[in-house]
């Protein structure tokens, strides 16, 4: 016989009460773990997606930089454009290590999915890039090989009818190397849409970033197709030395161009993280309430149990149990109840992470493709430890009450 | 040679307040309990029998008087200190058995050893169960036992710490006369074989007559 065994037998004496109390703890822990996973996952997802852009600084047309950054990450309409000569001016900056001009246009998605999967959005992002500088900025981009993708290559820089498709774009459109990709666009200044046909010359391997959903074509071809010759959407820049001072110096040099603004992706990252700050605060408030309710539930359950067993506790004292031993026994009951809730609650959160991810994506429409909820062993360990600590705190009162009972009165009240 | 005095009480008083009234549950009782003797406390309900055995078993402290248990003065001690007096020296048997319902017979018997920090050796528990006639009931739960068997478990639990004094408050009160006799035989055997002192309260005069000494209480005082 051990104290733990005795405590466990006391708990299973009232299985429904114990299960309900542990269920409350499980729910609170599941909410807390999911929230922690979201905090962790969202920051990493934002950081990962921005990292995959390949540059630290963007030069773009004046407007809301965060909206533009979000459009870069997840697509959408309402893009602003800057004159191409800005690129020619800025590329001479001595602090620049690499620079690439990008033109982004939006085409209506061809609804040709064979499996009936609904489109993630009604548009396909067309990205006109200058091949050499773009590939230098994103050296990790690789072309798929194997059946259906043999002979895959990047488009010729001066071609007007060749595209390279991102992994998901190709999957959705059911396109392989050699197939035709159709894009319906409305050129600048025109009312009617135009249908363009391109040959798919390559399909990219999955990157986990927005590039997966993008169709790449030569910069000039994209500008011409959209009727925006000599215009760009953004200029991506990697500085030789990236820090706050260099960034401010660089910004100061190029704010002289009236139509452009210089945005650090660190700023964008901070802004995107803060965008969901309110939602996170609300979820945190729910988690705190759930935890408080669980603590009250544990205290109530153990207090009730102590009250019911007043006579029995008196008997334990009569047969030799001291204050510390009664305290230990009741405290162990609290601890076991907390653990019985914390472990399944953590597993529930870990098992339901994909569901939580999908729900958050649906609610928040965040422009990242990486997992939004990351439940790590460390997070699970911290949640279980936290539940144990809170359980021990919750147990102090009932355990103290039980320990303080005088045996004669306790036995008499139990008879 | 005179036997060792294990419990000695002089002018023991236990008064308590009930509303505006002072209840004198015990009012100046002298008592000695020696090793290897059986002492029966007789008296009508409300005479102070249970109060006396609660004091003698260090479950309660007197409001006045001198009480020595196992050579240690216990009057004026706190509950925390009384625990130390009870442990290992005293074994207590209740009228209502008070077994822990979720524990088996063997676990109930071994329970006091947990609080003493001693490992319950299976052979020792088996020996106790054998002594109380429950060797074949070790794995049973209390609800599967008769009243007499439950009281035997309670006696086994009291004996597990090898006490020097066994205190029993109306141990046969909830049993039929035949079973009560058998339980009393078990007490007598323990006194005889282990040299344990026995203090018990009862209404049963036939059982009281089998004890070495009888104390009769009335209104908190010893009258015979």
Write the layout of secondary structure elements.
The complex is a heterodimer of chains A (415) and B (224).
Chain A lengths: L2 H10 L2 H37 L5 E5 L3 H10 L7 E2 L1 H6 L5 E13 L14 E7 L1 H7 L24 E4 L1 H7 L6 E6 L8 E10 L10 E5 H7 L5 E2 L1 E6 L4 H11 L5 E5 H11 L1 H32 L1 H9 L4 H29 L1 H12 L12 H27 L3 H8 L1
Chain B lengths: L4 E14 L2 E14 L3 E5 L6 H8 L7 E6 L2 E2 L5 H8 L3 E4 L11 H12 L5 H10 L15 H13 L5 E5 L7 H18 L2 E5 L3 H5 L3 E6 L2 E2 L2
Parallel strand pairs in B: 3-8, 3-9, 6-7, 7-8
Antiparallel strand pairs in B: 1-2, 1-4, 4-5, 9-10
Helix pairs in contact in B: 3-5, 5-6
| CATH-assigned homologous superfamily of chain B | P-loop containing nucleotide triphosphate hydrolases
Strand tally of chain A: 11
- Please count the beta strands of chain B (DSSP E, at least 2 residues each): 10
What is the count of helical runs of chain A? 15
Strand order of the largest sheet of chain B: 6-7-8-3-9-10
Tell me, briefly, the overall form of chain B: globular
Q: Alpha-carbon distance between the termini of chain B?
A: 26 Å
Rg of chain A (CA only) = 31 Å
Question: In total, how many domains does the architecture of chain A comprise?
Answer: 2
Structural class of chain A: alpha+beta
**Helicity of chain B, as a percent range:** 25-40%
Mean pLDDT of chain B: 90
Q: Tell me the number of helical segments of chain B per DSSP (H or I, 4 or more residues long).
A: 7
CATH fold naming of chain B? Rossmann fold
Can you walk through the features of this model?
The complex is a heterodimer of chains A (415) and B (224). Chain A is an alpha+beta fold. Chain A folds into two domains: 3-47 and 276-414, no CATH class; 57-241, no CATH class. Chain A has helices at residues 3-12, 15-51, 65-74, 85-90, 131-137, 167-173, 219-225, 244-254, 265-275, 277-308, 310-318, 323-351, 353-364, 377-403, 407-414, and strands spanning 57-61, 82-83, 96-108, 123-129, 162-165, 180-185, 194-203, 214-218, 231-232, 234-239, 260-264. In chain A, the strands form two sheets. Chain A has a nine-stranded mixed β-sheet, sandwiched between helices. Chain A has a two-stranded antiparallel sheet with strand order 2-9. The longest helix of chain A has 37 residues, at 15-51. The radius of gyration of chain A is 31 Å and the shape is elongated. Mean pLDDT of chain A is 84; it is low at 112-120. In chain B, the strands form two sheets. Chain B has a six-stranded mixed β-sheet with strand order 6-7-8-3-9-10, sandwiched between helices. The radius of gyration of chain B is 17 Å and the shape is globular. Classes of the chains: A alpha+beta (415), B alpha/beta (224). Chain A binds chain B through residues 1-3, 6, 9-10, 12-13, 311-312, 315-323, 325, 406-408, 411, 415, and chain B through 54, 57, 59-60, 79-80, 83-84, 86-88, 92, 94, 96, 98, 100-103, 107, 110-116, 120, 157-158, 161.
């Amino acid at each position: 016989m051990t104290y733990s065994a005795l405590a466990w037998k006391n708990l299973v004496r009232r299985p429904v009460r114990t299960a309900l109390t542990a269920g409350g703890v499980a729910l609170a822990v599941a909410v807390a773990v999911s929230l922690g996973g979201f905090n962790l996952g969202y920051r990493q997802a934002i950081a990962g997606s921005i990292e995959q852009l390949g540059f630290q600084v963007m030069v773009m047309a004046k407007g809301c930089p965060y909206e533009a950054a979000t459009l870069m990450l997840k697509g959408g309409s309402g893009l602003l454009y800057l004159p191409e000569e800005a690129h020619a001016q800025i590329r001479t900056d001595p602090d620049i290590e690499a620079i690439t001009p990008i033109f982004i246009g939006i085409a209506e998605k061809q609804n040709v999915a064979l499996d009936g999967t609904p489109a993630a959005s009604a548009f396909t992002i067309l990205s006109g890039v200058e091949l050499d500088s773009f590939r230098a900025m994103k050296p990790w981009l690789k072309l798929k090989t194997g059946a259906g993708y043999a002979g895959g290559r990047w488009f010729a820089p001066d071609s007007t009818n060749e595209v390279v498709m991102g992994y998901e774009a190709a999957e959705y459109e059911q396109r392989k190397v050699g197939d035709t990709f159709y894009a319906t666009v409305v050129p600048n200044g025109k009312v009617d849409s135009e249908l363009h046909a391109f040959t798919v010359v390559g399909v990219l391997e999955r990157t986990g970033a927005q590039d997966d959903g993008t169709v790449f074509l030569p910069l000039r071809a994209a500008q011409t197709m959209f009727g925006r010759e000599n215009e760009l959407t953004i200029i991506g820049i990697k500085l030789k030395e990236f820090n706050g001072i260099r960034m401010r110096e660089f910004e100061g040099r190029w704010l002289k161009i009236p139509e452009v603004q210089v945005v650090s992706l660190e700023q964008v990252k901070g802004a995107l993280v803060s965008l969901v700050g309110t939602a996170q605060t609300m979820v945190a408030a729910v988690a705190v309430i759930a935890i408080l309710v669980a603590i009250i539930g544990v205290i109530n359950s153990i207090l009730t149990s102590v009250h019911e067993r007043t006579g029995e506790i008196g008997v334990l004292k009569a047969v030799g149990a001291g204050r510390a031993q009664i305290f230990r026994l009741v405290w162990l009951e609290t601890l076991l109840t907390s653990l019985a809730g914390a472990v399944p609650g953590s597993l529930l959160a870990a098992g339901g992470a994909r569901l939580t991810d999908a729900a958050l994506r649906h609610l928040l429409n965040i422009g990242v493709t990486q997992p939004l909820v990351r439940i790590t062993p460390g997070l699970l360990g911290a949640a279980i430890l936290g539940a144990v600590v809170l359980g021990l705190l919750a147990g102090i009162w009932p355990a103290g009450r039980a320990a303080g009972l005088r045996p004669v009165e306790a036995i008499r009240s139990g008879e | 040679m005179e036997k060792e005095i294990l419990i000695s009480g002089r002018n023991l008083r236990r008064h308590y307040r009930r509303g505006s009234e002072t209840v004198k549950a015990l009012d100046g009782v002298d008592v000695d309990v020696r090793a290897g003797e059986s002492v029966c406390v007789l008296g009508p309900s409300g005479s102070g029998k249970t109060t006396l055995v609660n004091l003698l078993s260090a479950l309660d402290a007197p409001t006045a008087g001198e009480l020595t248990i196992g050579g240690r003065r216990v009057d004026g001690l706190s509950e925390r200190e009384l625990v130390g007096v009870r442990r290992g020296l005293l074994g207590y048997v209740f009228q209502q058995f008070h077994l822990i319902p979720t524990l088996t017979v063997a676990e109930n018997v071994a329970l006091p050893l947990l609080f003493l920090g001693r490992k319950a050796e299976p052979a020792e528990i088996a020996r106790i169960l054998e002594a109380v006639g429950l060797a074949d009931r070790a794995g049973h739960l209390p609800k599967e036992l008769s009243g007499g068997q439950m009281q035997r478990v309670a006696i086994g639990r009291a004996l597990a710490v090898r006490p020097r004094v066994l205190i029993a408050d109306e141990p046969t009160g909830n049993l039929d006369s035949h079973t009560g006799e058998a339980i009393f035989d078990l007490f007598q055997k323990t006194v005889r074989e282990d040299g344990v002192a026995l203090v018990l309260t009862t209404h049963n005069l036939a059982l009281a007559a089998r004890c070495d000494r009888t104390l009769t209480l009335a209104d908190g005082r010893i009258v015979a």
